[in-house]
């Protein structure tokens, strides 16, 4: 039995040294599968809703030790924004990917991380595969994609290889069995030095652990979105909030009345052959009012976090405009074709950020 498993079994927090030893032993193939599964079971059972300091410290050290094993990129991501969710909420179409495209069409420099589906029907990578949009393979490749299109979808290289080794060593047990905890910690692992990030949480009860982890990461500015309906994105038919890891909270009132079902207009397609067409309809403003406004809310948040707007209604209006004017669809199609289209700020028109006097 490894020190990590012994410590977790005793209900004590894991310090950085013990986590580092665990990862060293993993790479050296010194840990049996039952030990690895025991550690995963322990942290998965503890979950992401506990707010005691010991559990928070275990999660902080888990994230920091995995980040430390990722090489620090020579490239700075200052001025870029990432949007990613922890999963676990109701099944919807891929709102965060749509919002990333809308934000890029508004002039926000976006570097999006993501994964294949865990709780949703299709994850961002599943969607991008079907769209024919490739993931980047290195930090240099990512920088080039941002320069070319204003947006990049980072590939697996941004995650520590320990996760791949872990998945291989516990086979035939699938790593997705532990998706709840790994999807929660995953957004904190890419080394996007200088980037801002909006991380969607599936419940406000995840905030204590999430903000504790974010506060320990000293080279990124991290925000979180929550709502009362359990979605890991801002939802137009619900009351929402944005939370900064430093303690600031912005409340966002329900924007559209909806049909009584907060997710009626946000459901994923049942037919996989409709996945691409449905996504293109959404980014063209043809997916229904709830879909358009929900995507606009999330894109507006990225615009504000990225510093291109400071007035919430103006950001939402700008997002709706680039959707309805076809700017977002043009950007998506340009990436599918591999041709450069770099929209500017303010609906892609003049290249200058639109900073309003009134603030959120």
Automatic annotation (TrEMBL):
A GO MF annotation of the entry reads: anthranilate phosphoribosyltransferase activity
The protein depicted here goes by the name Anthranilate phosphoribosyltransferase
Q: Which domain of life is it from?
A: Bacteria
Q: What does UniProt give as the signal peptide span? A: none
Task: Tell me the Gene Ontology biological-process terms attached to this UniProt entry.
Answer: L-tryptophan biosynthetic process
Pfam families according to UniProt: Glycos_transf_3
Chain residue ranges for the region called Disordered: 336-360
Annotated Gene Ontology cellular component terms: cytosol
Keywords, sorted A to Z: Amino-acid biosynthesis, Aromatic amino acid biosynthesis, Glycosyltransferase, Transferase, Tryptophan biosynthesis
Recorded coiled-coil stretches? none
| All residue ranges annotated as the Glycosyl transferase family domain in the record | 80-326
E.C. number(s) listed in UniProt: 2.4.2.18
Protein source organism: Naumannella cuiyingiana
